[in-house]
Amino acid sequence: MLTVKHLAKSYDGEKKSLTDVSFSVRPGEVTVIIGPSGAGKTTILRSINQLIRDDDGEILFDSTDMRQLNRSQLRRARTRIGMIFQNYNLIEPLTAIENVLHGCLGTKSNLAGMFSIYSADEKQEALKLLEKVGLRDFAYQQCRNLSGGQEQRVGIARALMQHPKIILCDEPIASLDPKSTITVMDILRNLATAEGISVLINLHQVDIARHYADHVIGINNGQVVFDDATSALTDVAVTNIYRKDANQEGSLMYEL
Amino acid sequence: MNSDIQQVTTFFNKKRFRLTVLILILGMAYVGASFGLGFQTQSLLGVQDGMIWLLKNFVPNATSNGYWSEILQQLYRTFLVAVTSTTCAAVVSLFLAILGAKTLTVSKALSWLIRGFSSLMRNIPIVAWAMILLFSFKQNDLTGFLALFFMTLGFLTRAFMETIEDFGTEKIQALQATGATYLQVIFQGLLPEVAVALLTWVLYMIENNVRDATLVGLLTGTGIGFIFNLYFKSLRYGAAGLVVLSVIILVVTVELISNLVGRLLA
Ligand SMILES: Nc1ncnc2c1ncn2[C@@H]1O[C@H](COP(=O)(O)OP(=O)(O)O)[C@@H](O)[C@H]1O
Ligand SMILES: [Mg+2]
Predict the structure, then answer these.
(1) Which residues form the ABC transporter domain (chain A) (predicted)?
(2) Would you say residue A92 lies in a domain?
(3) From A28's CA, which of A139, A145, B36, B152 has a CA 20 to 30 Å away?
């Protein structure tokens, strides 16, 4: 479904943020990427939908290489890849339903998208998705008035509006309280199990990874150091993923 | 422990020293400038007499009340010039600011070009604008309109650009990730987020331009500035005082309205 091969990226041409990263994500599975801060988790995730232009490798999504697409092809490919963020990245003055409807911008004509001309079906679906994440009553609330957990659920609904095959989640629970964390993780888990959507999550809480993941990828210093089923994620493996290499900067932060 | 306290003390001493030097430099700059201009500090003492003369002559009296209708008419024209020039400039500025903002620009060169242009427009003083435009457009409202338009264009482009850059790349990327186009990102993401901030700038500029329009009118021989000049030169000080009063009332009213609108928007 998604296969990443030999991915490499350097932001400044000198220091390598990713060196030769390869892994794959299977349909209907929750795959969690763990690793210390600065290991390259965000860089991997953003390379997949090419928000970041990487330097080398292959990113096969449904057997087309995301890296070879032109502008309009990339736009079309992106419509099937949902994304949620630590800071939600909703448009705060707009209402929940407007933000959810943003999920179908990619399939609309330029003008219709610019001026919020949505079909009855699209509106219906947006409401249904809000219902699904438990926010039907908040459809007409400005997102700036929602709590963090609610905002993240709007973010998920926006991603679902894309009819995604995969959802990329960059530290989706890092700003949430324990209760919202569970709500959000349960929703993501259920999307994989019940709807066969692949879910790829950057996390730094190992216990959450153990509880929710089918498969875990450990990243350290821009390299894959663990790639196995969750049951194989022993304490020794975790220590290895979070180890501090001699050649790494001393300022590396541990987020365990 | 002791050395820590020592360190904090040294820190504050250094800071105090820097402040003293700064004040000394400013003092020297004042002395130097007064010397260069032949400006006598004692002459500030004469200000008081000048004020008294001003108060005696410029306080509107019964006869000056006859000028109200003419003043109001010109005030209205000046106000219109200020509002139309600001709103026209705002529309063009928004366009330039989006293309100039580092986060949304289509090319770096274009961004620098727009920055340079806005800096040039904004740094030509309004008086110079009025004088230059007088040559081509003569004495009419259009000259004043254009002078305010160009200056506002420079200012708002810069202000809008900074507001737009604050919007941040993350939210732009979040929309791009859905497959949204450039224009969709601008209309669905950027504009809703920055609308209030941009409007606040426009209101501020209207306030500012009502004041400046008076000055420009004085130079271009139109509006409220023109009749002030007229009354003043024909020694009708009371009427001229009334003009000043009316401008103050207008500016304060605009400010109050703009504060009110600002609060309603927030
Ligand atoms: N925009 C950027 N410019 C320069 N360096 C960056 C940028 N983003 C990330 N990096 C660097 O790339 C490395 C990986 O960062 P990131 O992918 O954000 O790690 P993680 O998400 O695992 O914390 C870090 O060393 C970071 O300093
Ligand atoms: Mg990160």
Answers:
(1) 2-246
(2) yes
(3) A139
